[in-house]
C-alpha cells in the first residue's frame, strides 16, 4: 500500500517536472518590463533575462541605478525612469514601452518594486510611513498593471507579481504584511479574470533574502528611528526592554537572510519562460519549510509560535 502511494507521488512529481520544463518559443523576440531594477531581485532578474537573450526593459527609480545596470548588460537592455507611486511617471513609462514593443505587445510584466522600512510594530509606525509602504507595494503595483495591461493582453503574455511569504502569513512587519496580502488578493482576482484572454498571472513569495531592502544598517537604523519617534505613552506601554529584545530579534533575522538571490529570480524566470508557469512560487527554505506549513496551522497555534520570541511589554494587563 505505502509502496503504491510512494509510486503515485513519484509519478505526479515526474509528470509535473516534465510539464514545467517546456519552454516558450522565440524568447529573443519577447519583451519583458521589470519595475525596481536598481538593486536586489529586479536588478538580478534584468541581468539574468538579458543573458538568456530576452529583450529587457528595466524600470529604475534612480539615474545611478540605471547607469550601473546598463554598464553590466548588453546593448539590447534598455532602461527607463519609473516611480510607481507617480501616475505621470507610470504613464510615461507605459508610452515608452509601447513605442518599443509595437504590435507584438509586452510578453512579460514583472511588478517587483517594493519597500519595507520601518519594520516596526503598527503602533510605532507613523501614518505617513504606513501610507508610503501601501503606495509603493500595492497601489503602485495596481497602477503599473492597469496601465500596461493592454500591452500584455496583446501579447497574451505574463504578469509576475512579487509578493512575500508575509503575504501568506502575517508574522511581522505591520503594514508591509498588509500590502503583500493585498498583492496576493489582487493577483488571484486578476488571474481568474484574465484566464480567458490567454494572460497568465504568477505570484512570487520569497522568504528572507539579503538585498537593499534587508540591508542591516539601514533597516536597524529605521527601526530605531521609528521607536525613538513613537509617542511617549507607546514607549512607556512597551518599555525599553521590550524594544531592545525586538531589535535583537530583527537583527538576528537579518543576519540569517539567504544570499542566494537566484532562488527567487529563477522562479521569476520560470514564470516568464515556461509554457506552464505556476500560480505561486515560494522561494527559499524558510518560506517552503517554515512559513508555508505555519500558514496551515490553526491561528491560535501559529500565534503562539510567532510571538514566542518576544518578551512581555512593560505595561502588560
Ligand atoms: N529581500 C527580501 O527578503 C524580500 C522578501 C520577500 C519579498 N521581497 C520583495 O521583493 C521585491 C524586491 O525587493 P528587494 O528585496 O530586491 O529589495 P531592493 O533591493 O530594495 O529592491 C527594491 C527596488 O524597488 C525600488 N523602488 C523603491 N521604491 C520605488 C518606487 N516608488 N518606484 C519604483 N521603484 C521603487 C528600489 O529602488 P532604490 O534601490 O533606488 O530604492 C529597488 O530597486 C519587493 O517587492 C519586496 O517586497 C523581498
From TrEMBL:
Q: Which UniProt keywords apply?
A: Oxidoreductase, Signal
Q: PROSITE patterns from the xrefs?
A: ADH_SHORT
The signal peptide here is 1-17
Molecular function terms from GO: 5-alpha-androstane-3-beta,17-beta-diol dehydrogenase (NADP+) activity; all-trans-retinol dehydrogenase (NAD+) activity; androstan-3-alpha,17-beta-diol dehydrogenase (NAD+) activity; androsterone dehydrogenase [NAD(P)+] activity; estradiol 17-beta-dehydrogenase [NAD(P)+] activity; testosterone dehydrogenase (NAD+) activity; testosterone dehydrogenase (NADP+) activity
Query: Matching CDD domains, A to Z?
Result: type2_17beta_HSD-like_SDR_c (cd09805)
Q: Which GO terms describe its biological process?
A: brexanolone catabolic process
Family membership: Belongs to the short-chain dehydrogenases/reductases (SDR) family.
Can you say what this protein is called?
Hydroxysteroid 17-beta dehydrogenase 6
Q: Which organism is it from?
A: Otolemur garnettii (Small-eared galago)
